[in-house]
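Sorry to interrupt, but I need a hand with the structure work. Please put the record directly below this note.
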Amino acid sequence: MKFKWIVLTFMITIATVLAGCEPLLVLDPKGPQAETTANVIWISIITMAVIVIVVIAMLVNMLVKYRASKQPVDYEPPHIEGNPIVEGIIVGIPILIVAFLSVVSVMSTYAVEGTPEGYEEQEPLVIYASSSNWKWHFSYPEQDIETVNYLFIPTNQAIEFRLYSHGTISSFWIPQLAGQKYAMADMVNTLNVVAEEPGEYVGRNANFNGEGFAENTFNVTAMPHDEFDTWIEEIHETADPLTEEKFTELLEPGHLGLMTFTGTHQDFKPAPEGENGGHDHGAPKENDTESDSDGNSHDEHSESEETDHSNH
């Protein structure tokens, strides 16, 4: 009797807590990439629910049907050979479940990595999103502006975020628009996003990176194109320019409010991509090994040293 009351109290507590929860943002998508992610989550939940319900039902049936009976002490159960059909079912069904979820995962991963369907022909708006302890810097190179801890984007427009970090690894995540992706030093990751509904969205760092992690958030506002263009014009009329000294100050660890500048830090501290990448293996630079017309390689510096040595 006591056990029943404990179980009943536990169930009532869980129901009360869940009733007060806000809707999960990741299951309330406002763009095609987030919708793909939400669909995969629902497919996984439904698949696992079916498995759990079937397994529990079978367990209860077996506990009732094959429960211990009052047999004599010397009772020996009959010898039963394995059933190939049953063995095939208990092995084959898990394989089918794993294969199904694997196919769904691979297809959805390719879908969210590329430009959303229907926006392939559209020139994306490029925004550099870089993190520092514990803030986010958003550079709009085409619009020549930069914001801190907030982001304005036009609706029904392909957005290409280029992610990197000025320090520790962070994770860029806007639950209602796209899944999370890492921002790391010395490399740039890309994330394609489209907001199909105007509104206010919450973004955050989803990777623990120190004591300021909990407040490492940013605001996202999606608006029609004309409002976005008006916002750009207002910034150029009112905001101060971003200097290298000011940006160095912003990189200091700590929290900041919302800030807006004209110009971007890409002018004096570009993102780690292309020739500015941390792992650049491009064309040879000055004094690097060169090849002559016969395909033989020789170093200018070494050649000059050999000439001087022969003169002596």
